[in-house]
Each structure stands twice: as structure tokens, then as C-alpha cells.
Queue: 3 jobs
Job 1
Amino acid sequence: MNREFLSQYSGWLDREMHMLVYGYTGVPVIAFPCQDGMCDNWESFQMQDTLADFIDSGAIQLFCVDTVDRESWSAKQADKGYRAQVQERYYHYIVDEAVPFVREVNGTGQLPIAAGFSLGGSHAAIVFFRRPDLFAGMVGCSGCYDTPHFWDNWCDSTLYDNSPVHFLANMPPDHPYIELYNQRKISICVGQGRWENEGRRTAGILRDIFQQKGIHGWVDFWGYDVDHDWPWWRREIRYFLPWLLNES
């Protein structure tokens, strides 16, 4: 398997940001780490091996990115407004800098899929639902799709824009993004086992919003034995990926 470490200076974050890239070609998949993780997070849990057949066959090219969660979602002792601004800058790093970089490296002209587990699933949802024009679809497993759990029920206009449950609930039913969402593939998955309370709660809210707005998203609740953990995420990503790639 081809593996390449890439570095890109981010003007939005004023630092070098890194990617681990697996494969030579295929649909680009932008993979967000779990909370506080960096670009080696998926590799640390053998996810590149889990997806080896997709990567080696040229079905996908995997781009694993860094996060700045320690300064935003996880920095609970810091000023909340500052934390929200860091998250907003991270969002702009992904859509304004990382996505064009990924498309240049990939070279196929295909829109990327956003993917992640736990807080990585939250990031995937944020970038996809804010900019569906830039993505072919998204898969979020065990994500938390609003912000009160991390920001102690505090919110301002910047943080609101990073809380899909809130901005989707208030999106007018005739918003042009609704039609665009329905041209994409949306999969939200959550187990009902250990450590899945926030994921289960917010996935349920998203399911209701999708129904109200006419958004054709697939919200899938797995069993009570399905925990918030990597062994299940490996099974979930393999289950959804063929559908996202139009192979099922």
C-alpha cells in the first residue's frame, strides 16, 4: 500500500497541518480523527488495513487529517468564545485549504467523501452540511452533532454555525442546500451500547430533522451491544462505504 506523509501550511490556523495519504487514486476520502487525534489516528487503530482492499484496488484514496480539538472542543478551561473561533478557523482550514489540496493531490476530479468516528464524525458532518457543494457525501459514526455537551450549553453565532442540529433545524425547507443534500450520500450511524449516549441523542434529532426537511439521509441505529469503540467503527465503515461509492 502506498503511504505518504504530507505537510501543508494553513493560513487560517497559522501552522503546518499534516496528512497521511494511503493509495494512489480513487474517490478521495477525508478522514477526521477521533477527539484530540492527529493524522496518524486512523493508522494507530489499523483502519488503513481494514480498508486495504478499497485502497489497493483504487476505489478510494484515504486522506487522514490533523485536528486542533485540544484548543477548541476539549479546552474546557479556556474562554468559550476563543474556543469557538478556533473551531471556526479549523472549519475554514478544511474547506478552503485542505479540500483543494486533496483534490490537487488526488487528481481524479471527484468530490471527496467526509468521514469520521466520534468527534471525527462531528467534524465530517459540520463540513458536509455547511458546504455540500464541496463533498460527494459523508459518513459519521458515533458523532455528536450539536455543541452543548462540549460547551456547557453556551453558544454564540460562531459556535451555532458548527452545530448541525441547530443550523439544520432552522434551515428553511426551500433552502437550495436541501436539494443539494439529496444529490449526495449521507450516512449517520450510532450504536446503542456503552458510551453512545450523546451520539444516540443527536442522531435521533438529526433523523427527525431529515424527515421534517425532506432530507434523504440514512440514520442507522445499531444494536445495544454496539459500543463507542474502534472494533465497531471498523465494521460500520465497511458496511457504509460500498453504498457511498455507489457499489451496492
Job 2
Amino acid sequence: MEHELKIDARRKRILELLAQDGQVKVTQLSELFHTSPVTIRSDLASLEKDGYLRRVTGGAVQTVRNFFTMDAQQRKHYNLEAKTEIARAAAALINDGDTLMINSGTTTLYTAMELKKLNSLNIVTNSMAVAVELAACPTFRVILLGGEVNAQYSFSYGNTALEQLRQYKADKAILSIDGIHAQAGITTYHAEESAVCRMMMERSHETIITADFSKFGFEGFSKIANLRNADYYVTNKNADPETVSSIRDLGKTVIFAC
């Protein structure tokens, strides 16, 4: 029993490190736990079987399933450095005076923070956090969509939100999503928000997808659109190469922020 508890504690700590950094290395874990690389590989194989990580050469990376079990505050701090770089690269695609549609998500929230460096933006969003972040900017006009509310993740959705979206047209949509897959397309775990994201894409001239590497090669619960329906994918360099190739084969732009 003591041996089993030691294994469980070690694997729990591995998941905590994944939540913190987005990836782990076999050599680092072996040194940290004073155990052999063979033991660590066994841990990673077991956690991969349960869907909590994906093994890569020399270690493992976070999966959407593990990310989805976090609460909103934990998500905000997960892979913070990468998200900040992605947000900065996404904001560089925006010009003063643009009209934007922004959905909910931690990466879009960090992008919103970067947008505060610009002037005279018009923002339509279903994210309460994004609306609060940008509403204080004196040259910004912020419209928060009404409708039903997901209190856990602080976003609005439903027919009222969709009816309001139909009244607006934007230069660009900035979306944070849960899965990017060659066959499944752009997906989310929040089925109730998928229609809002889809309409944001339809009502915008261009769509910018902001997603860290853990979202590439994975399929969320509800489909938003095909890969060809977005124009820019902003991520980091260890995104799944096959998915990146599929996007580029469609003539779309992949930007590696870090």
C-alpha cells in the first residue's frame, strides 16, 4: 500500500508540473524524484493511457482533458509565459480603430490586456473578464453580449447573444478554443459557446485563433468550424507538426509566438 501511495503522489506531482509548465522532461523528473528514467516513463505511460498527457520524445506535454479539469483561476496561470507571448503576437495583428469580436478564454483575456496599448478599438465580446479588462480604456467602446450566463467560466451565450451578434460586423475575430484537429477542425468543450464562436467568425472579415500547443492535434466536444474558416493560428513552436502542416496546406498562416 505504501508503494502505491508513493506512485500516486509522484504522478499527482507530475500532473501539477504539467499544469504549471505545459510540459515535462524525463531527465528532469528522474532527478526530481530520485528514481530511474524507466520508472518515469512508466508513470507517463499510465497517465497517457488515462488521457492526462501526451508523450513526446524525451517527455510529455499537457492534454486538453487535463486542462479542462482546471477551474478558471488555475487555467489563467497555466502556461503563463507562452500565453503571454501568444497574446502579444495576436495583438500585433490588430490596428488602431479596428472592430473586434472576442470570445471567452484565458488566452483571449491575455490578448485583451495587450490590446490596451492600442487606440480607438470597438470590442464585442461574450466574456465578462474581457469586457471588464477593456471597459476602462478611454478610447475603447466595449459591448458585452447579453443572454444566458455560464457562471463558472464567466461568459454569455444563447439566442439573445446570437441575436445581438447579428447586428454587428467586425474586422477581426479573436478566439480562444480547446481543440485544433486536421479532420475535426476547430472545436470547444463548451457546446453552448460554439454557436457564439461560429457567428463571430461569420460576422468578421478575418479570424485569429489563439491557442497554445496543447490544443493542437486534439478534438473538443463541440465543433465550431473547419480549419479553412480561420485565417491566422497563433501558437508556440511545439504545436503538433502534422496539424500545423494541415493548416498551412490550406493556405492559412501559422504564427509561432515562442
Job 3
Amino acid sequence: MQQGHDYVTKKGTIIPNEEVTTPATKPKSYAYCADTIYDENLIPKILGVDLLYHETTYLKDLHERAESRFHSTTHQAAAIAKLGNVKKLLIGHFSSKYELLDDFLTETKEVFEDTELAIEGMCYKI
């Protein structure tokens, strides 16, 4: 029965597997992309994951700085999430030049709505 087969009693009665078991819940998937420049080659590796963590070191206006330092911006991380058809995006690895993080969330949601900030010590439901 553990392999999904029906059970046959000693008297020959067939007990269908679906009558005595419940389907397993679908496993959750997670992908982590950090310290990475915008790279669409990542998409096949993250395709359809439940939760994607992607760095957003800089806001969108500093895309040239991000590229020169092999990092990503808010819009770039969101684009990877969108192209990868992920369910939820978690952004982090913010440059220390920023004191507030609100703009990171606002900009990323312009491209990929289901986004949250990665805050140390927080738990996230997927």
C-alpha cells in the first residue's frame, strides 16, 4: 500500500488504496541566488520554485554599479523571478549605503508583486 497499490485480503476482497490513504502534500522548493549579476542562465535552475531568494544589492538607478560589481538590482531580481515563474520572491543582500529598505520593496513589486524583504531573524511562510 505504501507504493500506491491496492490491498487484497486473504478472502480476495480488494481494498482500493485511495480508500485508506491520503495523497501526500506537494513538497516545497526553494532557490538561492546571491552575489550574482543579472543572469538569465539561472532561470532553468529556479523554474517554478515556491520561494526564490535573490540579492538586490542596489536600487534600479544603480544598474551600472551593480553590473560592475557583479550584483543585481531590484528590477533585475524581479525579472528573474518573473521569467522563472516562481511563486514568491525574497530579496536581500542590500548595500550598506542605504539606511531604509522601503524603496527596495516598492521597486521590486513594480515588476514582481509577491515580494518580501529578507530581514534577519524573520520566518517566512511558503
